[in-house]
Specification:
The chain contains 8 helices and 2 strands; from the N terminus they run H-E-E-H-H-H-H-H-H-H. Helix 1 crosses helix 4. The N terminus is likely disordered. The structure holds heme C (2 copies).
Length: about 190
């Protein structure tokens, strides 16, 4: 078996120090701004795809820092932005191992409408897409969800496009890899009311 090189401890330590000092006050479990309550938990950052190991440019955590959107009080120093970049790029390039569902994520997610509705749409979409506050799109039942779906064709389904590209849930953590897979497989299998 190949040994995976581990993340250089100094990069990880420096990155954690920045996240602790500048982000954790608004992104911890008792104050989860934008539904992100785990900014110093590397496993959760990967699971919810705020970090794509080896790909800082595809990592929302890096993107908001690089654009100066986070922290809201003003951008990090360039040297700190560089540390986060190096940590995600060099430090994690070969580190794809050991990503497990964080504590609190339970239940089996199936590629079926009921499972997707209960585990993804209800908790993560209906806050903004119910019949009262639809934001132009009501996702409160199967028929309405189907207005965003091209059966058998996830890439032509507005629902899938919005979550795979991270536009939705708006301003929140992206769906996890297993959630995206369930949605994609459900659509590929005909998007049945099952
Ligand atoms: C003073 C509070 C505060 C601090 C400090 C803070 N955030 Fe945020 N963050 C928020 C709020 C509020 C949101 C919800 C979205 C919004 O209103 O812009 C958010 C949203 C986010 C998002 C999701 C945004 C999106 O568009 O998907 C990410 C990622 C994020 N923060 C990362 C960070 C990082 C990394 C840091 C530290 C460098 C940080 N935040 C520091 C308050 C904060
Ligand atoms: C915090 C509020 C919020 C949440 C949560 C949210 N949306 Fe949205 N959504 C919006 C708003 C506002 C718009 C209108 C267009 C825009 O502002 O981007 C929108 C538009 C859309 C659109 C059409 C435009 C596009 O970008 O494709 C789709 C599809 C969509 N949402 C799907 C979803 C799905 C699926 C979820 C849950 C996984 C979700 N949304 C969660 C606020 C939200």
């Amino acid at each position: 078996m190949l040994m995976q090189p581990s993340v250089p401890p100094s990069l990880e330590k420096d990155a954690m120090a920045i996240l602790n000092a500048r982000c954790a006050s608004c992104h911890n479990s008792s104050n989860p701004k934008g539904d992100i309550g785990f900014i110093t938990d590397i496993n959760s950052l990967k699971y919810y795809r705020l970090i794509v190991p080896g790909e800082p440019q595809l990592s929302p955590l890096y993107e908001v820092i690089a654009k100066g959107e986070m922290p809201p009080s003003g951008p990090l120093a360039q040297a700190q932005v560089q540390i986060i970049y190096d940590w995600i790029f060099e430090g994690m390039l070969t580190d794809q191992t050991g990503v497990t569902p964080p504590v609190g994520v339970t239940g089996v997610l199936e590629a079926k409408f009921q499972s997707i509705f209960v585990n993804i749409i209800q908790p993560k979409c209906l806050g903004c897409h119910n019949n009262a506050s639809a934001n132009g799109l009501d996702l409160s039942n199967y028929t309405k969800v189907m207005t965003t779906i091209a059966p058998n064709d996830p890439l032509r389904s507005a629902f899938y496009d919005s979550v795979i590209k991270g536009r939705m849930p708006k301003g929140r953590a992206m769906l996890s890899a297993s959630e995206l897979t369930a949605v994609r497989d459900w659509i590929t299998n005909g998007a049945l009311n099952n």
